[in-house]
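Newbie here. two chains, one complex. Structure please?
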Amino acid sequence: MTGATIDHLVSVTVFLAAIVLFIGLFNQTIQTAIIYQQHRYLASRCSDILDTILLSPGYPINWGKTDTYPTFFGLQDPEFTQYRISPYSLMRLQSVTGTPITYPKTGLTYSNITMGFGNFLLVPYTKAINYSAATKLLGVNNTLGFQLTVTPIITVTITETHASNPLTASVKVYGLGFPLSNATISYCFLKVKASQGNTPLYSSTFGTIFADDEGEATVSFQNVASDESYVLIAYAHLQGLVGIGYHERVTSTKRYVLPLIDSFAQRRVILAHSYDVHYGGPPESAVFFNATFVLLTEDFTLREMPMENSTGKIGKVNYGNGQPYANLTIPTYNPGILIATYKSNNEDGIVLMPWGMSTMAFPVTFGDKLTDKEWIVTSIRQILVNGIAYQAKLALWSFKGYSVVG
Amino acid sequence: MMRTIEILLVIIIITGAFIIAAFFAVLPSPRQVSPLNLRRLALTTLQTLDGDYSMSTTVFKPTGDSSWASLQIALSASLPPNIVYNFSVYEVQSNGKLFNPIKSMSNARDLGVGSDSASYLTASSNVSFSSTPQKIGESGGGSTLYILNCSDANGWWITGYTAQKLAGDLRMLLSPYFQATIMVQNTTQLGLLLNGTKITSSPYEKVASAVLINTFGETVPIPSGYYLTQGAQDSYAKYCYLLGQRVRQYNWTWASIVGWPLYYVSNTVALSGSQNGWGIYGMVMVGSPGLQSFLRGLDNQAYAYGNSQTGSPGVVYLSSVAKYYSDYYGIFPSTYSTATRALSTSILGTYHLSVSTCIFDQTGNWIAGAVYRHAGTGAFLSLGLARTPDVRLTAVGLLSDYKPRLYRSEYTAAGTSRLVVLQLGQVGGA
């Protein structure tokens, strides 16, 4: 009798222990499968959301060219189909990179994409679409988080190899995984000329060169002194792939004009004295400016578009109270580059601002930061922004942790 | 003891069940759980490469053509380094074998641990329904179209465009209808042309009976030398007179695409120190006498300085003739526009002109857009609309006036479609 009882006790104990063990093992397998399933679902959502963003212009369809907020979020260029993205809608995305700046004279904070000195895109928060609004318009707020990165496929790097007479520059054209051999490179060279008056004068030269098998080319310019300011803008293209690079040399970075977008609808840009934004301190000299606009034509050559005086292309700005900023109207909705030459106390320089994100191959990073996320999925598309080849990458994550969604 | 043995048997059975279940329930690798969508990447890569129809052009070229190498360079440059590809082109055939391989290129021996592909159908330039236009002036050997594309002049009243952009658009619209289409690249070439000299070596170029389109809006480029010195009288109104004389002399059709014709003259080199009153240098304001002088020259009247007149009838509508030819040639501008520089009907009698084609319906005594033919030789197209210009109206106006026929050709599908397949693979990692 005692033996039978012990037999029962041992067998029940072993049985219960085995059941608990196997439940744990099966549960672990099932749990892993559920998490994998959730991640697979997330990857599918990522691809869908990226297509939603890239294959719809949003509503109103031309919201990128207005100052109004869209009621549906999408970045497709309304004049095209497929993966062609509006350069103006991209401009209105609030960048997650770059330190925002505040301009006291407008009282506004500006989203900042600065690609080295002299290459600015500053959009007021009041006109930029923020991440929170975008998640609501996409219907993923509180469930999914994302970061959208739009980067140019072709990189054009310009390096000054000889400072003067002749000024020589090396142009290197690279893709994501290979140099763009034998690419055709159109360039615009704009030099600030010595002048007696306050208004800076400039001269421009346009031309075409060809890259070698390594994707490199050299261009030289006569009659350029080592203390003269200039900008060299180069467009490289081969078989539908187009990339842009630029290089500036300025004699002064202390005082300059800073272009701030004021209105997309009115194509109006504010030119501010840099001291009002970056420095403060004692009063400084006025900065005189002379602006022009360069656009990329369909035959991949750069052309200067003359600006009327009424656009505010010539003027001066000063620092401090009682010194208003200058207004400048861009003459067209064709994407191009606003070039502002400036002069102050016999020091001069050049600043650039893209009108249409693609014209200076500016990258955009829009959304939340990627740190501290449990599982991030990504999806990639090749896109065209006004004919310039870009890559769009969406990183997506779920706020619901390990639980099954959907 | 039996119970314990039974339990051990149960445990063995459950263990077996777990092992069997685990054997069949294989979890996917992390790459398969969250895969890179290679199919979409392949499709968008093909679309990018064909963004300006470069790829469509290349895949129809002979397999030894150098553009294939350029295509491969572009393909390699556009894909991330960890992506390998196999790019294949097939000809789509209508009988027998459906796809005939044309060429294949790859950057790896195999496509790694996983691959996916996308296909893209390209069409050659003659795949669509095509038509062969009759050449204007065909019976006389064909007319020449000259488009002013001068790099040393600035435009006015063409806000939002450059003259060069408009010239390019006009070339695309009108070149099929002319024996030769020539871009006048600078004012020096314009000067040669005004002297009756050909500016290219093309055997098809004919100065006489040509059509000249001024893409500079209210501005007209002025050459240095004779025309700058002789034409300088009365703030270059005399130059406009000389232009009118040349139009009559060579039986040209002069087209003004927008605004008040000949209101400014421009030469960014010779007139670099002058500005038009609105901040554009290299330009001088002639004012309203420019048009009057031109018409006097066209009518072979003696030169006299005097004003011309334009009016603002407001919204004007395309004439029925223009609408008909808009449909016929497949060029569709807006059917209405705003005219602020319409010409007066009084010029018809004063300068012996007749309206050969009305582009917009006449409003009162104002003609917003028309082709005027002189009783002798020479013609003049004027579109007195508010900026910005729509060059489709110029094209419709000229075609409505010359009426070249379109000979429709049949659609032929054989050999006109090629299938491009891009297969992508991912290398590296598990």
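Moderator note: Chain A touches chain B through 69 residues (CB under 8 Å). The helical segments of chain A are 2-54, 87-91, 131-138, 274-279. Thread marked as resolved.
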